[in-house]
Amino acid sequence: MKIMKILPKILLGFVLFILTLTNLAVAYIIFAPDNLPKPFYLLYAVPSQLTPSAPVESPTVPKPTPQIKITNLEPGQGLMVDTGSKIVNLVDPTGRKYLRVGVVLEFAPTDPAYFDLKTPEEKKAYIDNFNQEIEAKMPIINDTLITLFTSQTFDTVYTAEGKEALRAQIKDNLNKQLPEYQIIAVYFTEFVVQ
To answer: 6: pLDDT confidence band, cut at 50, 70 and 90?
Structure first.
């Protein structure tokens, strides 16, 4: 009889202990810095420059025509698109090598008339329209980037030559995936291999 009175208390204590451990583990995964070891890392995909506050339509701004390719553009003359930070597992037998990388893509404007726009309002309207088009393509961009990153090994991305080769692969793969757009440069805003 005494066991029947004690058993529910033991079970309740065990359930509360398990619940407390689970909550502590979730809090650690969410709030602990990413440089600490975790069973898995969260990936936040919130592009900061792709969400315009309100769609701007202007009859004076020409709509981009994806068929026209602009050549002879130097890096720095295009339109920047931040794809956000990505954390992926590298190819590793132990599964413990990670890559945290932030990528900014520089696109050539799809319409040569972009360089003839005079007022800041016209340029802003063009850029907002371009960002809306690219935002619709973000699943393709993110999938291509993540697939490429997860196929890398620590040895291939650790060196400066490896990073340059990765830039070239990103540019080539995305230009193939998005033939109506032209990527002229790839920038790493963060690059951590651990």
So the answer is: confident
